[in-house]
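Justification of computing resources. Each target in the renewal requires a structure prediction run like the one illustrated here; the chain below, 301 residues long, is used simply to show the kind of job we budget for.
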Amino acid sequence: MALTLAHLSDVHLGPLPPGAAWQNFALKRLVGAVNWNWRRHKQHDRAISSSLVADIVAASPDHVAFTGDLLNLSAYAEFPRAARWLQSFGDPAWISYVPGNHDAYVPVPWKYGLAHLAPYMTGDMAAPGSQASFPYVRLRRNLALIGLNSGVPQSLTRAAGALGPKQLEALPGILHDLKAKGYYRAVMIHHPPLPGLAPPRKALRDAAQLRDILASEGAELVLHGHNHQQMLNVLAGRDGDIPVIGVPSASMNETGHAEPAAWNLYEISRNQGTWVTHVSIRAWDPKSRRMLAKNHFTLPS
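Resulting structure tokens:
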């Protein structure tokens, strides 16, 4: 029996809470608020993200992968609002989340920030209420979701990411163990995980190390966001090709420089000992103002 996995990213939930730029002041937060009020609020439409979420709920996938950037400035007031939005979307057991750079825009103490989203990024073996640890692993039937955190505070003009030594050291053993147990391994990360997929100021700093780990240990699917566009790259691994897929922003309208909002549905099954993944893309149609089927294809394996 096939298992279905939905993938969305980069909601950039608006509007900004009152006083977001000034409370717990940081210069980068102020600059980001100016950028939002001048340009970004015209591109990220909450009505579109609501339609996209409703479309996912109507499709009733077995699980949802959300690859970051639910917030904009990491303002303290954004976190509880983001948690309420996620709760209205679905149960933490049904949605797996990893932070993006906008969720770590500036340093924020855990209890005032990502603690609000912790139920959605806690592994199956972690103690309830504990600080999220990455990589986390969630097992859903024969699907293993591996959540990586690339969201780290950056300087004023940068939107880069990094995993750091701890995650990079833990990941090979996790991938190896899950393969030995027969799981389909879906890796979640916000930033594009391979070198050259984003400009330097927005790229994953340790992408080369991550690429080498994935090529050596393998994965059946790697999901990311960040670039606000539909992307399909294939990494040649030791045991076969590894599809690496990015999706557009879940709230982007047609006025932006990026593609309108879309989400992907992965139908995962096994045929004669080989994993098969069918992909369906559903995208925002500005004329009808609803989500429509855009493309369908089968991933290399």
